[in-house]
Amino acid sequence: MVTAGFSPGHRSFLSRFRRCCVRIVSILIVLPLAIVIVAFAVANRQAVTVSFDPLFRDQPCLRRDGPLFVMIFVLLILGVVVGGVAAWIRTGEVEADGAPA
Fold first, then answer.
1. Does residue 64 contact residue 74 with C-beta atoms inside 8 Å?
2. How far apart are CA 98 and CA 61, in angstroms?
3. What are the C-alpha distances in Å from 13 to residues 2, 7, 10, 21, 24?
4. What is the arithmetic mean of pLDDT over 68-96?
5. What secondary structure letter does DSSP report for 16?
6. Which residues contact 49 (CB under 8 A, 6 or more apart)?
7. Which residues pair with 63 in a beta bridge?
8. Which long-range CB contacts under 8 A does 76-80 form with residues at least 24 apart?
9. Of the four listed, 32, 33, 50, 100, which is most buried by Cβ atoms within 10 Å?
């Protein structure tokens, strides 16, 4: 099927070109981000104690010891998961109402 004056081969070329551009842009975004994450992890290797017990500061019963970058990455991943679940639940509510998603 030929539409708008383009041959099927031309469409294939555009598809491959688009995929190539997406890969290049992805690499241009992911590579610097990976470098920043590694630099952050190397700079924040010192151990920290996170306490979940506000009443007893001297000997908290709920505490975690670990490198600072691990604590921050865990919180970041947890935030992404909670946000994804919230968006997923919201999408389910819209579909349940019969409105287009």
1. no
2. 48
3. 15, 10, 5, 12, 16
4. 86
5. H
6. 63, 64, 65
7. 51
8. none
9. 50
CA distances from 37 to 47, 50, 80, 99 (A): 18, 21, 16, 41
- The residue assigned the tokens 């001297």 is 58
Question: What pLDDT score was predicted for residue 2?
Answer: 47
The DSSP result for 20-32, as a single string, is HHHHHHHHHHHHH
How far is 91 from 71, CA to CA, in rounded Å?
A: 30
Contact in structure between 48 and 66 (CB atoms under 8 Å): yes
pTM, 2 dp: 0.57
Mean pLDDT taken over the chain: 82
Share of the chain above pLDDT 70, in %: 81
